[in-house]
């Protein structure tokens, strides 16, 4: 095969000065940094666009799922006049409240520049004052950046932005017990890049001004902060030195020395190190802190310890089924201080339970809570929620809720009442964790994508953070403006899966589990097998021992002699051909093709990534597959034309079924993740490409069009206020209509992308991660990363587009 490179050619669309005044992204491309402040102010433009959009009267209709919720991060409680209000914060779904102990919930923070929440806090002396810190601090790869801190003084009816914009992640908010004007914030800083806006911040005037009272360095932020209940001038801060790399989780690195615990006894003016007895600085990962209310001399530290533990066991694998080659670290350990942090002693045991407490990713968790009435009863949050009643020596895992735990509130008046935040949402217990109630109506599901089949009624498929893959019916029986939300059922695939459906048989579903584990499932055979098993028979089928499930991952040997092992991203693409139903394409660092539905494969490309060894970690527990193909698209009009885009910003096209590949990379901004490639169904040679800068803490919108198969590209971002841009789609019937999904919401253009409009008037601020338009049933379906799936009548959009603006051609 031959690889060629086209000459650099980068073309911008020229817009009028009147339009340019409304285009923040043009200012960014003229040197303004597309940082969190840019994102925050761009949201004001977005809200203005939404209010004036000709499509504001067309409603988005929620599709569900109605039977599950999404990742919650924190819980706060307000007590007023004998009544209790619970606030639940979510990773990407904003903040929700209940005034009836979970019977009903209301979203109260859903129209802001970021609805990714790190912490929520209520002023102890005034329950009407509520603080919301945006930017989840748990550092998932799909985490969204925050834009600082917000304050409400009217019981969460309204919120005002109160600064700290470029912290991007806020881990903890601590309000003075008697003076609500005094607030401390633990800011852990940017996820992907170094920055100065991290550490401990303090306001003494209710958020009008802030002072950075403790700082260690541009890669070391504050990840936890607790106040002595007997002395509000005494606080303990945990500083975490970390960065997330595109090829590695945020682990300790050689030379790290800034992490650990520090203490102030003068309200933040001076800080002293409080690490005596803890692991050495180079081994300190994330640490969680809490102080015993019943005895403030007692503190607990939950340490992710990177000291060597034991060698890997034969056949040992991580949570994603990848082999573990490195020695295991000591991982989760609990330390106790009986002298206000003067000295620490390890109280947990060295055993398999503690080593497996947080899996291989303790940096996601790091929370510990002390029973307010008993200094010897503590809770640790990891894969499970665990309780120790002997000061951390032994633990019991509590059951009855979803896994992956991030927040816990214990009622100080009745410690048997627990409110838990985890990857499944918000849970309540009134019997110290023996039983739990799941409040599924709070929060929203984090969908990575959506695929629609052609059955009647339509089934929508999507993969969900920590829930695997699910599917739900798009019920149009009462019309496209009365689509009900429904419960969703399990579907082929895993948590991070793309889906492709055979266009001749809706029962054949291709899916990708994480990191290249491709399967083909015959849903009808699988259902029959399950029924036979329930009836006492023996299910029949291949692959993984389940009926109708076939493992179709290409064999490692196809990578080629002397080549590295196959690399597949968390969400690796799989494409079912529009021209030959039995042909399937899959993306690793190479493109693979099968002409028999995945039974056998051939490699049809060289490595299309940069293949930079310095950005690859091999056989490491912290390794993340990088330099992989993440976008793969086949021309709907011309067989043999295939585009491939990578996570390190490379773009290629083949015009002859993989014999020759042309490198188009130099025509686009460098090293930005290729989020979507859409070859046009209306004009041969036209292709649309979107890029995202999230992995560089870059929030500019990158949207491009080519009419010559990628030789040259023109920016068509026009007045899109900000990115990241996650998806672009053509309307299947109207060549003048394009749709766009960003981290703010959905957009539509009808005039060749000279101007974009906000699509719909009732969508909360949410990341639109994917969008599909059903060509037969004329319905638009969006997947959101935080508020589930929604549908809209495409006929109304087309009718409004004809009324709103004249056609401008393409």
Write the layout of secondary structure elements.
Elements lengths: L1 E4 L4 E3 L4 H4 L3 H6 L6 H17 L8 E4 L7 E9 L2 E8 L3 E5 L7 E4 L7 E7 L2 E9 L14 E4 L7 E2 L8 E6 L7 E5 L11 E5 L7 E4 L5 E9 L2 E11 L18 E5 L7 E2 L10 E8 L7 E12 L17 E10 L7 E2 L5 H4 L11 E4 L7 E4 L3 E4 L7 E3 L6 E6 L7 E5 L2 E5 L7 E2 L12 E2 L5 E7 L3 E7 L14 E2 L8 E3 L6 E5 L5 E5 H12 L14 E3 L22 E3 L7 E4 L3 E4 L7 E2 L25 E6 L7 E5 L4 E4 L5 E4 L9 E7 L7 E6 L9 E5 L6 E3 L9 E6 L7 E5 L3 E4 L7 E2 L9 E7 L4 E6 L4 E5 H11 L6
Parallel strand pairs: 1-47, 2-51
Antiparallel strand pairs: 3-58, 4-5, 5-6, 6-7, 8-9, 9-10, 10-11, 12-13, 13-14, 14-15, 16-17, 17-18, 18-19, 20-21, 21-22, 22-23, 24-25, 25-26, 26-27, 28-29, 29-30, 30-31, 32-33, 33-34, 34-35, 36-37, 37-38, 38-39, 40-41, 41-42, 42-43, 44-45, 45-46, 46-47, 48-49, 49-50, 50-51, 52-53, 53-54, 54-55, ...
Largest sheet: 5 strands, mixed
Mean pLDDT across the residues is 92
Number of distinct beta strands: 58
Strand order of the largest sheet: 1-47-46-45-44
- What amount of the residues lies in strands? 35-45%
Structural class: mainly beta
What's the CATH H-level superfamily name of the domain at 2-61 and 445-517 and 553-804?
YVTN repeat-like/Quinoprotein amine dehydrogenase
Number of helices: 6
First-to-last CA distance: 33 Å
Bin the helical content. under 10%
CATH T-level fold name of the domain at 2-61 and 445-517 and 553-804: Methylamine Dehydrogenase, Chain H
The general outline is globular
The CATH class of the domain at 2-61 and 445-517 and 553-804: Mainly Beta
**Name of the CATH architecture of the domain at 2-61 and 445-517 and 553-804:** 7 Propeller
Radius of gyration equals 26 Å
Poorly predicted tracts of residues? 4-31, 537-545, 806-810
């Amino acid at each position: 095969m031959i690889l060629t490179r086209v000459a650099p050619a980068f073309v911008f669309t020229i817009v009028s000065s009147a339009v340019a005044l409304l285009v923040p992204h043009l200012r960014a491309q003229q040197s303004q940094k597309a940082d969190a402040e840019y994102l925050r102010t761009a949201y004001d433009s977005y809200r203005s666009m939404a209010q004036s959009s000709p499509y504001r009267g067309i409603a988005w209709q929620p599709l569900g799922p109605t039977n599950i919720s999404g990742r919650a991060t924190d819980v706060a409680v307000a007590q007023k006049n004998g009544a209790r209000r619970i606030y639940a914060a979510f990773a990407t779904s904003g903040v929700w409240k209940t005034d009836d102990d979970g019977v009903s919930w209301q979203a109260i923070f859903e129209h802001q520049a970021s609805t990714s929440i790190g912490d929520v806090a209520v002023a102890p002396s005034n329950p009407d004052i509520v603080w919301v810190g945006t930017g989840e601090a748990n550092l998932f790869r799909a985490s969204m950046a925050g834009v600082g801190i917000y304050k409400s003084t009217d019981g969460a009816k309204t919120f005002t932005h109160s600064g700290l914009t470029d912290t991007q992640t806020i881990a903890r908010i601590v309000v003075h017990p008697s003076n609500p004007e005094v607030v401390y914030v633990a800011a852990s800083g940017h996820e992907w890049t170094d920055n100065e806006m991290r550490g401990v911040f303090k306001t003494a005037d209710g958020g009008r001004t802030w002072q950075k009272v403790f700082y260690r360095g541009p890669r070391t932020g504050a990840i936890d902060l607790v106040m002595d209940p007997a002395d509000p001038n005494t606080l303990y801060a945990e500083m975490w030195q970390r960065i997330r790399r595109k090829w590695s989780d945020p682990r300790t690195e050689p030379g790290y020395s800034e992490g650990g615990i520090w203490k102030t006894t003068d309200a933040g003016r001076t800080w002293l190190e409080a690490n005596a007895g803890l692991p050495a600085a180079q081994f300190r990962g994330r640490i969680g802190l809490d102080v015993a209310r019943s005895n403030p001399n007692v503190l607990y530290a939950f340490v992710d310890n990177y000291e060597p533990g034991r060698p890997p066991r034969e056949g040992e694998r991580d949570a994603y089924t990848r082999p573990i080659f490195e020695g295991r670290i000591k991982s989760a350990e609990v330390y106790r201080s009986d002298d206000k942090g003067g000295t620490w002693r390890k109280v947990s045991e060295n055993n398999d339970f503690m080593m497996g407490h947080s899996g291989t990713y303790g940096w996601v968790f790091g929370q510990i809570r002390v029973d307010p009435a008993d200094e010897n009863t503590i809770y640790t949050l990891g894969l499970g929620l665990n309780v120790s009643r002997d000061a951390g020596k032994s633990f019991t895992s509590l059951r009855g809720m979803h896994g992956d735990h991030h927040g816990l509130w214990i009622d100080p008046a009745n410690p048997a009442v627990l409110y838990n935040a985890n990857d499944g949402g918000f849970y309540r217990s009134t019997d110290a964790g023996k039983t739990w109630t799941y409040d599924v109506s709070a929060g929203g599901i984090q969908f990575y994508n959506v695929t629609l089949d052609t059955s009647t009624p339509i089934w929508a498929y999507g993969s969900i953070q920590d829930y695997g893959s699910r599917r739900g019916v798009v019920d149009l029986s009462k019309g496209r403006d009365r689509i009900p939300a429904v419960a969703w059922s399990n579907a082929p695939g895993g948590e991070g899966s793309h889906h492709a459906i055979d266009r001749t048989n809706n029962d054949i579903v291709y899916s990708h589990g994480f990191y290249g584990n491709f399967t083909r499932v015959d849903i009808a055979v699988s259902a029959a097998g399950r029924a036979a098993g329930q009836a006492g028979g023996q299910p029949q089928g291949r692959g993984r021992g389940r009926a109708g499930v076939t493992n179709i991952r290409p064999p490692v040997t196809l990578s080629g002699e002397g080549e590295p092992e196959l690399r597949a991203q968390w969400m690796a693409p799989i494409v079912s051909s529009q021209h030959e139903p039995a042909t399937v394409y899959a993306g690793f660092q190479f493109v693979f093709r099968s002409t028999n539905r995945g039974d056998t494969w051939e490699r049809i490309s060289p490595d299309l990534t940069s293949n930079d060894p310095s950005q690859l970690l091999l056989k490491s527990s912290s390794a993340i597959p990088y330099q992989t193909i993440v976008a793969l698209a086949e021309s709907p009009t011309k067989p043999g034309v295939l585009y491939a885009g990578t996570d390190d910003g490379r773009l290629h096209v083949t015009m002859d079924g993989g014999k020759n590949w042309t490198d188009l990379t130099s025509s686009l901004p460098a090293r930005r993740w290729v989020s979507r490639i859409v070859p046009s169904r209306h004009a041969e040679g036209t292709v649309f490409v979107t890029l995202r800068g999230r992995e560089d803490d870059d929030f500019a919108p990158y949207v491009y069009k080519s009419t010559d198969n990628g030789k040259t590209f023109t920016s068509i971002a026009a007045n899109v206020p900000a990115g990241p841009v996650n998806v672009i789609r053509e309307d299947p019937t109207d060549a003048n209509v394009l749709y766009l999904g960003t981290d703010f919401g959905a957009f539509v253009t009808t005039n060749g992308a000279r101007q974009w409009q906000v699509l719909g008037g009732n969508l909360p601020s949410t990341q639109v991660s994917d969008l599909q338009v059903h060509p037969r049933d004329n319905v638009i379906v969006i997947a959101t990363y935080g508020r589930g799936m929604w549908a809209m009548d495409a006929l109304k959009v087309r009718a409004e587009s004809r009324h709103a603006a004249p056609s401008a051609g393409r």
